[in-house]
TrEMBL record:
The UniProt record lists the keyword Membrane: no
SUPFAM superfamilies, sorted: Actin-like ATPase domain (SSF53067)
UniProt xrefs under InterPro entries: ATPase_NBD, FGGY_C, FGGY_Carb_Kinase, FGGY_N
Entry similarity comment: Belongs to the FGGY kinase family.
Annotated Gene3D superfamilies: 3.30.420.40
PANTHER family noted in UniProt: SUGAR KINASE, XYLULOSE KINASE
Keyword GTP-binding: no
Domain annotation Carbohydrate kinase FGGY C-terminal: ranges: 278-474
Keywords: Carbohydrate metabolism, Kinase, Transferase, Xylose metabolism
Pfam families: FGGY_C (PF02782), FGGY_N (PF00370)
Annotated protein name in UniProt: Sugar (Pentulose or hexulose) kinase
Amino acid sequence: MGQQRTDARTAIEQGRTALGIELGSTRIKAVLVGEDHVPLASGGHAWENQYVDRTWTYSLDAVWEGLRAAVAELLDDAERQHGVRPATVGAIGVSAMMHGYLAFDAADELLVPFRTWRNTSTGAASAELTDLLGYNIPLRWSVAHLHQAVLDAEPHVPDVRFVTTLAGCVHWRLTGRKVLGVGDASGMFPVDPATHDYDADLVARFDAHVGDRLPGGLRDLFPQVLVAGQDAGALTAEGAALLDPTGTLQAGIPLCPPEGDAGTGMVATNSVARRTANTSVGTSIFAMVVLEKPLATVHHEIDLVTTPAGDLVAMVHCNNGASELGEWAGVFGRFATALGAQATPDEVFGVLLREALEGAADGGGLLSYNYLSGEPITGLEEGRPLIVRTPGSDLSLANLMRTQVYGAFATLSLGMRILAAEGVGVDAMFAHGGMFRTAGVAQRLLAAAVGAPVAVGRTAGEGGAWGIAVLAAYLVHGGGVDLGTYLAQRVFADAELEVVEPDPADVAGYTTYLDRYTAGLAIERAATEAI
């Protein structure tokens, strides 16, 4: 143990490390890894989006406050564990929630508050662009937000000079480079997997359609696209001060291309090869399936994006994930406290998840809708969390929690059914995110929901921050090896995975639940109209 601490200290002192930072929906996390990609220190900061003027947003002040807090906690953690405070690292990577709209003027000033992926106010633009391009343009994509602003003749549109994502914005401020990793870029505008750049034909169609309603062509306004391993600039003195105002962290550190949370999820689960898939469960939930060939039909429920290396991926993205489950955990945690019991939030969450395994396979007749916001896959512009049951249903804690977990996966299942009908094969689904820290529970129920084996590894709780740290390490140590080979041979060669096969009884019960859930969407729709 002492030798390991000494080795880690030496690696930190010599900068033989990589730092990954991810801005998730509810938490900003920073992870420092060694040359073996094992985490050495971490830091985090909780934050929440705000609903202001019917728009989901985060302020840029909150972005920088959160980043500084997460990095400060990581530096403290490194000093506490290893006796040294990092002054430099081998490389840095920045990741964040994909999509959304951050628009800047010629003076690099933000024109309107950040519009996140969660907003569903771009229906007209999404439909018009999908028809124009013959390519599904979801509501949350950056080009949909930009085009909706054009359609609405918003006053700021003539002043737009740069549009980017949250990861692209942070990277730009740290390095001065207006670039974006191909995976994140593919959630702004369609990317051609052959060129690993915005699709030239579709760019031409878009520019011709918009004409002089924008102050420049799409390539003038959007970031330059880079693939994993390419030079994306270095930390400037101003950028170093933004991350660490104490001056400990030095300028000059190289950065890998900034990526979206979908791309870092693929890396964190070693699912960048064809027929592999991964799912990430947080405020939103999505599944990524690396395709063997393009889909035959345009589906509004399915995004086509890419891996960080530029390979085509089908993405089922649901706006609503585990937040409602977290709300119930808070209720029961408070109940435990009122009874005089002392339990941490993680302990409460673990108890409730394990209780879900005791529930009936079909949820005992209960239905749970986790829709805090609109859900494009099911055609809902707004959400109302609901629990629905009949007089004959079995209301128990076990059934309540089982259906809460089912509710987190249900919309995802509807999207996966579409891919199955297209003949898309999945050999294994790799899962990550905090829900999977409680061994075996969410993993088993997800296997029933997707009808495929679900694997969880030791980095399940680290998620995208670890994934972007690996991409930062790949920038330095890749040596021309393709990303898939690097992950398989350098990162996951000795990885321990727990794989759970779908249980036939769970699958049958979940199928019954999902049929009932689909029929009950009319209740959810009525709730949005009545309340």
